[in-house]
Amino acid sequence: xxxxxxxxxxxxxxxxxxxxxxxxxxxxxxxxxxxxxxxxxxxxxxxxxxxxxxxxxxxxxxxxxxxxxxxxxxxx
Length: 76
Description:
The chain is mainly α. It has a domain at 33-58. It has helices at 27-36, 39-58. It is extended.
């Protein structure tokens, strides 16, 4: 299944040829990514995650986090 564009929620069968590809970014690569994201955008993303967790708890769905977040070190 390939995604034809950024707003393509369904995709289509076929091999990726110049289409969007995705990669799960974890560990140090994820840290590097978030270091490059402006603080305002980073905070908005964190707020969205907390809102989604709260909504899931309200529906009785276990969330992916227990509400505890790892503290980030400030760049020196």
